[in-house]
Amino acid sequence: MNRISWLAVPDEHSAHEGVQKLWAKAEANLGFTPNVFRAQALNGEHFLAWWNDFNTLVNRDGHLTHTERELIAVIVSTINRCVYCAVSHGAALREYSGDPAWADTVAVNWRHATLTPRQAALCAYAEKLTRTPTDMTERDLTPLRDAGLNDHEILEATQVTGMFNMTNRISSALGFTPNPEYHQRGR
């Protein structure tokens, strides 16, 4: 196996029991275990706590659509130059949108993609919160509201942006590499 992290990575026998179950579920659902699951499994309890929050914000039904959440993930991950998350969530955006060319354009420069006003507002908000969080003011919510987002959706957009900023930093700081499978998904 190629190196997927700059830290030690537990194997199927040494990983926390709950992590082993998650790996088996991912293998059954995706056909592979995401490297981020393996790389963060070194501290099993912490990984499972992160996964619970991540899974709730990104994978389960919420106030935003799956495409909108993946759109935010790609914007944040591209700005942060997080290879793992940009590749893996770029694949998810291709799958959810059903439009690989659009998703690839978003990943390179969202301003060149054909976006709805709602999507553009989400991208601009995620970008500002990622680049200059100390500059955020209440006025930054106005374009979101003007695009039709309610307070539940705005909170979720903020939480997803925050989750990806944290996850990007973990992945980049420890050299997580994306699974090869992600490069072909949604194409």
TrEMBL record:
Cited Pfam families: CMD
Q: Which residues form the Carboxymuconolactone decarboxylase-like domain?
A: 46-127
Gene Ontology terms for molecular function? peroxidase activity
Keyword terms, alphabetized = Oxidoreductase, Peroxidase
Q: Which InterPro entries match?
A: AhpD-like, AhpD_core, CMD-like, Uncharacterised_peroxidase-rel
Q: Does the keyword Oxidoreductase apply?
A: yes
Which domain of life does the UniProt lineage start with?
Bacteria
In the UniProt record, does the keyword Nucleotidyltransferase occur?
no
What the entry lists under NCBIfam families is as follows: ahpD_dom (TIGR00778), peroxid_rel (TIGR01926)
Provide the protein name.
Peroxidase-related enzyme
